[in-house]
Design goal:
seven-stranded parallel β-sheet; single chain; 2 domains; 60s Ribosomal Protein L30, Chain: A; about 20% strand; alpha/beta; five-stranded mixed β-sheet; Alpha/beta knot
Length: about 280
């Protein structure tokens, strides 16, 4: 149904208001089981992956761009029973906090998370995921989103995030990922790093990217027989910004791995390091 709104205080907009309050959004999105998809392209990717909208919010002049995806998700170009809120550009800017290009967004139902090893085993037509990235305790939503975008581009089968890692479905993560957070299968892995042993039992060679004195170069690791064999399964663990991986994580991994650096640089940003690593370990 088309609903025109003109007031930020309209209670029907509660899913959208105060989007810039990070702590409030974390609470509200968990409490209400939702996340935000911003821009028509991101909404499109969410709907293509089967995610279900609670409502849409758009500037009327951009409604035509959104209508095919509203119809695909709801069966009706006006959204049927799902509200399609229309607001002027200034109101949308007040809600979002910045000028949105081709302004539209949607409040989406948050899909339930899968058990991690069930997820890994069902991928690649039931043959199981072969390239996995684990994100340990990342706190920057921009980095999380950038990693998902690289993972989608470089053929990563799945991403596992630890319980203390930032939410991949937080609005900034989704926006930076350009919606690829919906394309790369992901879930949370608990009891980390003890649960690394379950990865090993599932056949994964585990590599902790770390500035460790015993670390081997990424190109050396990528040439190991267990990495280049036809049925290789590799899980790469990336650590939090600043402190890097926990000492126990490095100790639990099969290998500590380092990206060789030039120019007196000791390391890359975690998102850049993940992209380099995923490219080097891609399936040929």
């Amino acid at each position: 149904m088309i609903v025109r709104v003109a007031d930020l205080a309209d209670p029907r907009l509660e899913d959208y208001t105060r989007l810039n309050d990070v702590n409030l959004r974390k609470h509200l999105e968990a409490e209400r089981g939702l996340y935000m998809a911003e821009s028509t392209k991101v909404i499109m990717r969410a709907i293509q992956e089967g995610h279900v909208p609670r409502s849409f919010l758009a500037v009327e002049k951009w409604l035509a761009d959104l209508e095919p995806w509203i119809e695909k998700a709801t069966g009706a170009r006006d959204g049927g029973e799902v509200p399609v809120f229309l607001a002027d550009e200034e109101l949308l800017k007040d809600i979002v906090g910045y000028n949105m290009h081709r302004g539209s967004m949607a409040a989406m139902h948050r899909p339930p998370l899968e058990e991690p090893f069930e997820l890994l085993s069902r991928l690649r037509g039931g043959e199981g995921a072969r390239r996995v990235v684990v994100l340990e305790a990342l706190v920057d939503h921009t980095n999380v989103g950038a990693i998902f975008r690289s993972a989608a581009a470089l053929g990563v089968d799945a991403i596992l995030v630890t319980d203390d890692c930032a939410d991949p479905l937080y609005r900034r993560s989704v926006r930076v990922s350009m919606g690829t957070v919906f394309q790369v299968p992901w879930t949370r892995i608990s009891s980390w790093p003890a649960s690394m042993e379950r990865l090993r039992e599932a056949g994964y060679v585990t590599a902790a990217l770390a500035l460790d004195e015993d670390a081997i170069a990424l190109d050396v690791f990528s040439a190991l027989p267990e990495v280049v064999c036809d049925d290789s399964k590799v899980a790469v663990v990336m650590g939090t910004e600043g402190d890097g991986l926990k000492a126990r994580t490095i100790a639990e991994a099969d290998h500590a791995v380092i990206i060789p650096m030039a120019g007196h640089v000791d390391s890359l940003n975690v998102a850049a390091a993940t992209a380099v690593t995923c490219w080097e370990l891609r399936l040929r």
